[in-house]
Amino acid sequence: MTQTAVATFTALAGLDKAQFPVYSGFIDTSGSENYYVSCVGLAASLKDKQVLDSTSYYFDFKLPAILDTAGEPQVNPTNYTFANGDNPALLWQCVSKKSPWTKIDTKIDLKPTISASGFFPFGHFFTFPHPHNGAPSPASKI
């Protein structure tokens, strides 16, 4: 026999949603069968949570930033060959230091111009999930 149970949680009064308070507990049922179900929730909306630092607090420039081959913030559009160290780097940091796990999900219309064989003697630095007809390019604009 299947039963449906609906539980509604209400945040405690006086919580500061800007602090993103977490609550946890359990639901203990009893009857012909006993269940002990853990629960956890957030008394705020994650849509309001800033993830990436966009300040210049630790650096002399705002983050996130694209760094050029010399490690300086890129100001103008620049061509990179992606050979012999001629490549950009993305410098960013999370606002919250509480979670070591970060997932960056980007939507990019990528048309690769680097051959699948790569430039590196130790193997691939960039990998592509699907075969492509790309060929090495003398310069790739970032």
Give a quick set of tags describing it:
two-stranded antiparallel ribbon; 6 strands; mainly beta; 142 residues; single chain; 2 domains
In terms of topology, how is this protein built?
Blueprint: E1 22-29, E2 35-42, E3 65-67, E4 79-80, E5 89-91, E6 140-141
Antiparallel strand pairs: 1-2, 3-5, 4-6
How many H/I helices? 0
Total domains: 2
What profile does the largest beta sheet have? 2 strands, antiparallel
Q: What is the overall pLDDT average?
A: 75
Structural class call reads: mainly beta
Shape: elongated
As a percent range, the share of helical residues equals under 10%
Name the beta content range: 15-25%
CA-based gyration radius = 24 Å
The neighbouring-strand order within the major sheet is: 1-2
Helix-strand topology string: EEEEEE
Q: Which regions contain 5 or more consecutive residues with pLDDT less than 50?
A: 135-142
Quick one: how many beta strands? Answer: 6
Distance between the termini: 60 Å
Description:
The protein has strands spanning 22-29, 35-42, 65-67, 79-80, 89-91, 140-141. It has 142 residues and is mostly beta strands. The chain has 2 domains: 1-49, no CATH class; 50-142, no CATH class. The protein has a two-stranded antiparallel ribbon with strand order 1-2. Strands 3-5 form a two-stranded antiparallel ribbon. A two-stranded antiparallel sheet has the order 4-6. The chain is elongated, with a radius of gyration of 24 Å.
